[in-house]
């Protein structure tokens, strides 16, 4: 944990900046889909650009860089927690406005909610996102996608706040999208995005969204504690297929197991710890390497417990 004296100073600065939506020693398990994660020194919800800039300045003053947390659906926090500031975007950053075929969405806005709002306006291009839990910012950062579609195909521009508090807007051509990643042109925090969609038939869009949901229910462990796909699909094919062929489907360590339904998902089925999950990941990588001579890269982010 941060020292009591440093925590007191940070608390006083948060209050002085009128940032009142913060929690101390907050268990991160309650903020992640895996349900794993020890206490963070501070979890701060910033609700405006002013609060964001103030928090960045506080972090800079005390040498504590905030970690941006969306819905916690594609990451693993240590069971030992996180030293420092964990920041969640709320309020102003949750707004979604639609004008014609252009959608302005705050980085903290829910991606499934955005997909539903677009479909209600007969806008197509986000049907694939209806079943992807997470925020708009996280979806852009990871270039989230499914069913042959991805965020790179709809993003027109992104507003980023640098770690120095400078706001800049970049067009899609300035963003370096790849398979399940986006390399931003500068270090910073995604604050807002403009998406360009297309007009379509509402009934067709809704039918497509429901079909995608049906496929997810049939093939993925929907409703269980997971963090989505654990590994990126290699160029040679499906990560799930390689994992299953390596005999890892259903493999369990502690309270974590490879999903019996989909081999590229890890389920927290019995109060798993972060160590259980990390050991299971390493075991799967080892077996796939031994049998297929293939290295599986993580799609899920592992956030280490930072030392004081």
Automatic annotation (TrEMBL):
Active site, renumbered: 180, 229, 299
Its ancestry begins with: Bacteria, Bacillati, Actinomycetota, Actinomycetota incertae sedis, Candidatus Hakubellales
A molecular-function term among this protein's GO annotations: FAD binding
* Catalytic activity of the protein: UDP-N-acetyl-alpha-D-muramate + NADP(+) = UDP-N-acetyl-3-O-(1-carboxyvinyl)-alpha-D-glucosamine + NADPH + H(+)
Name where it mostly resides: cytoplasm
Pathway of action: Cell wall biogenesis; peptidoglycan biosynthesis
UniProt entry keywords in alphabetical sequence: Cell cycle, Cell division, Cell shape, Cell wall biogenesis/degradation, Cytoplasm, FAD, Flavoprotein, NADP, Oxidoreductase, Peptidoglycan synthesis
- What are the subcellular locations of this protein? Cytoplasm
**Main function:** Cell wall formation.
Q: Which family does it belong to?
A: Belongs to the MurB family.
Q: Quick one: a GO biological-process term for this protein?
A: peptidoglycan biosynthetic process
Cofactors? FAD
Q: Where are the transmembrane segments?
A: none
- Protein source organism: Candidatus Hakubella thermalkaliphila
Q: What is one GO cellular-component annotation here?
A: cytosol
Boundaries of every FAD-binding PCMH-type domain copy: 36-200
What is the name of this protein?
UDP-N-acetylenolpyruvoylglucosamine reductase
């Amino acid at each position: 944990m941060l020292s009591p004296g440093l925590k007191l100073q940070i608390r006083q600065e948060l209050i002085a900046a009128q940032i009142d939506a913060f929690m101390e020693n907050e268990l991160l398990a309650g903020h992640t889909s895996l349900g794993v994660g020890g206490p963070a020194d501070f979890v701060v919800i910033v609700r405006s650009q002013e609060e964001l800039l103030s928090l960045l300045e506080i972090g800079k003053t005390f040498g504590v860089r905030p970690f941006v947390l969306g819905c916690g659906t594609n990451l693993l926090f240590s069971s030992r927690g996180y030293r420092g500031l964990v920041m969640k975007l709320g309020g102003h950053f949750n707004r979604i406005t639609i004008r014609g075929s252009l959608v302005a969405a705050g980085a903290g806005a829910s991606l499934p909610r955005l997909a539903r709002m677009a479909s209600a306006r007969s806008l197509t291009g986000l049907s694939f996102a209806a079943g992807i839990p997470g925020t708009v910012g996280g979806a852009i950062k990871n270039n989230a996608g499914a069913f042959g579609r991805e965020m790179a195909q709809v993003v027109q521009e992104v507003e980023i706040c640098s770690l120095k508090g400078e706001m800049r807007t970049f067009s899609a051509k300035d963003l370096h999208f790849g398979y399940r990643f986006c390399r931003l042109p500068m270090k910073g925090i995604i604050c807002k995005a403009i998406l360009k969609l297309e007009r379509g038939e509402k009934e067709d869009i809704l039918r497509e969204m429901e079909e995608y949901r049906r496929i997810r229910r049939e093939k993925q462990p929907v409703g269980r504690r997971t963090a989505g796909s654990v590994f990126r699909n290699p160029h040679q094919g499906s990560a799930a297929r390689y994992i299953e062929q390596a005999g890892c489907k259903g493999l369990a360590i502690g309270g974590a197991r490879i999903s019996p339904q989909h081999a590229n998902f890890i389920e927290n089925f019995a109060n798993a710890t972060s160590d259980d999950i990390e050991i299971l990941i390493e075991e799967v990588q080892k077996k796939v390497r031994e049998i297929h001579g293939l290295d599986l890269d993580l799609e899920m982010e592992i956030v280490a417990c930072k030392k004081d």
